[in-house]
């Protein structure tokens, strides 16, 4: 079965299994920057423009952006901030840099 054919419930079950330790599922502990980067990508790419937008390019922008900001893992509902997260302005600059890099050197096959 190809990944695309897999029902989402089954996919989630497999993901749950991968992030299981003892009897606990750890997949709810997320890097807080993940959702912020996605929001920022939506803002910066909503105009469409010349960005390719294929899966590879979108994943590259996401990965490059996340690698450029300090990870900040939190438990669901936890409000403890031990370090200052990057400002929205810094994050927008990081994501824009990633978009520019992927535009200049996309990893997708020649189209
Ligand atoms: Zn692409």
Q: How many beta-strand elements?
A: 4
What level of helicity do the residues show?
A: 40-55%
What small molecules does the structure contain?
A: zinc ion
Strand content: 5-15%
Characterize the biggest β-sheet.
Answer: 2 strands, antiparallel
Query: Radius of gyration over alpha carbons?
Result: 16 Å
Stretches where pLDDT falls below 50 for ≥5 residues? none
How would you describe this structure in keywords?
single chain, 111 residues, mainly alpha, two-stranded antiparallel ribbon, 7% strand
Question: What does this molecule look like?
Answer:
The protein has 111 residues and is mainly α. The chain has a domain at 29-104. It is built from four helices and four strands. The chain has a two-stranded antiparallel ribbon with strand order 1-2. The protein has a two-stranded antiparallel ribbon with strand order 3-4. A hairpin with a 2-residue loop joins strand 1 (20-21) and strand 2 (24-25). Helix 2 crosses helix 3, helix 2 packs across helix 4 and helix 3 (55-68) packs across helix 4. The mean pLDDT is 84. Zinc ion binds at residues 52, 54, 56-57, 106, 108.
């Amino acid at each position: 079965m190809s990944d695309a054919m897999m029902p989402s419930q089954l996919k989630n079950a497999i993901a749950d299994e991968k992030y299981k330790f003892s009897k606990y599922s750890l997949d709810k502990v997320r890097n807080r920057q993940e959702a912020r980067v996605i929001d920022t990508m939506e803002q910066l790419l909503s105009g469409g423009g010349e960005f390719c937008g294929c899966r590879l390019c979108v994943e590259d922008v996401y990965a490059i952006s996340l690698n450029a900001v300090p990870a900040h893992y939190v438990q669901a509902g936890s409000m403890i901030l031990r370090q200052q997260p990057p400002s929205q302005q810094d994050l927008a600059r990081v994501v824009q840099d990633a978009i520019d890099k992927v535009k200049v050197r996309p990893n997708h096959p020649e189209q």
